[in-house]
Structure formats: C-alpha cells, structure tokens
Design goal:
It contains eleven helices and no strands. By secondary structure, the protein is an all-alpha fold.
Length: 247
C-alpha cells in the first residue's frame, strides 16, 4: 500500500516537471519560430492569410497536437515497460539517467556543446496542407523528426517514466508533457494575431529560455542521481496525508 501511495506522491512533482518541460519546449529556439509557418501550412494559407482570418487554424492545430501526443504516449508506455523489465536495476538506471540529463542540461547552459543536439532532423509530411488528416500526420512527423531539437527535454521525461516502474505513470508523464507543448500551440491557433505579436516579443529572449531549460535539466538530473524524488514524495505524504487516498 505504501508503494502505491509513494508512487502517487512522486508523480505530482514529476508531472509538474513534465508540464514545465513541455512549455519550455514550445518556447525553445527551434520550435517557437516555426509555429506561425506551421499553422499557415496546416491551414492551407500563407501567414498573412492566417493573420487576416481567411481560414481558422484551430481544427488543424488540434489534429497536429493529437498527432504528436500519439507518439509521446507510445514513447511513455515503452519507457515504462523498459523500466519494469529492468526493475531490479532501477537504482542504477536512475543514476545513469540522472547523469545523462545533467549532461544535456550543461549543453543548454553552454558549459560545453554537443554537436548532435544543435542539429535539426525534420521529417516532411507532404507538400499540401489544409486538412485535418495532413495536420495529424504532420504532428506524428514533428514528434518523430524534431529530435534532437526537443530531444533533451523529451529524454528527461522519458527518464522519469522509465525509473517510475509503472506503465500508467510513464504514460501519464508523457501525456502531461504533450499538454505542456500542445496547449500553447492550440492557444496560438485560437488567438493568432495576439500570439504572433507575443512570439515576436519573446524571440529576443530565447537564449534565456534555453538556459532556463538547462537549469531545469540539471536540477532534475541531480534529483534522479540522488533519489531526491522519493525523498520529496515521502515529504509530500507526511505533509499532505490526503494524497494517500489518490492511490
């Protein structure tokens, strides 16, 4: 029973990290600048036509988010299954994952650079936009092909999923990550003109956002390395006993 309660409590901070990582992924230098052209492509009009309201981008954006969410959920299930298969080496896996996440965080902080993480590996989804099915396929292609662009953030959440030991927890973490990345995309489609104006104001600060992502990665890596997630979960259960009922 305690194991279930502990897993439930441990999911909360991990879910917060996943949501924040998804949002920072949206704001990253390799995602934010392509949002308006992607919306325009999926809608079948140019960016000017999108801003003029010639066609709504909401439905294509929704199917795009469903596409990338499909891939992330499968990844989360697979990472959790991997973690369960090697449950006896869970502590070692956590430490290895922590080291890898810290290394990726130091890359974002420009302590050193890993060349492969500076590359973009995009998959094309055809030449014509404007349809829900095409937007869904583009979402699949984005999730598969935008690594290593969002690879460090995604790798961090997959590490949390693999070290959790529960299939539902890992899938849930990737669902939360998809929400963090997908909801801003949907909001950009709903409020196109305001979103484009806001994104233009954010662009000069992309380097700061990248460094914030680096700090998050290092912190999570240290927590994985030291087992601090379990310690924090115990603290949550002691401080908020009602969390036990969620298990």
């Amino acid at each position: 029973m305690l194991g279930i309660e502990l897993a439930t409590a441990a999911f909360l901070p991990a879910a917060f990290v996943a949501l924040l990582a998804g949002f920072l992924s949206f704001l990253s230098p390799c995602v934010l600048p392509i949002v308006p052209p992607y919306l325009a492509y999926m809608t079948g009009v140019g960016v000017n036509g999108l801003r003029a309201g010639e066609r709504s981008a909401v439905l294509p954006a929704l199917f795009f988010v469903l596409g990338l969410s499909t891939v992330f959920l499968v990844m989360g299930f697979a990472a959790s299954a991997f973690g369960r298969a090697f449950l006896q080496w869970q502590d070692l896996l956590s430490k290895l994952a922590g080291v890898m996440v810290i290394v990726m965080g130091l890359h974002f902080l420009h302590v050193f650079r890993i060349p492969i993480l500076d590359q973009e590996a995009r998959l094309e989804a055809g030449q014509q936009g404007g349809g829900a099915l095409g937007a869904y396929v583009l979402g699949l292609a984005f999730a598969f092909g935008w690594t290593p662009c969002i690879g460090p953030q995604l790798g961090m959440i997959l590490s949390l999923a693999a070290t959790g030991g529960e299939l539902s927890r890992g899938t849930g973490l990737l669902a939360v990550y998809a929400m963090g990345l997908g909801i801003p995309f949907l909001l950009a489609a709903i409020f196109v003109n305001r979103a484009i104006g806001l994104m233009n104001r954010i662009k000069p600060h992309l380097r700061k956002i990248e460094r914030a992502m680096g700090v998050l990665l290092v912190v999570v890596g240290v927590m994985l390395l030291t087992g601090a997630f379990s310690t924090f979960a115990f603290w949550l259960l002691e401080t908020f006993p009602a969390l036990a009922s969620l298990g």
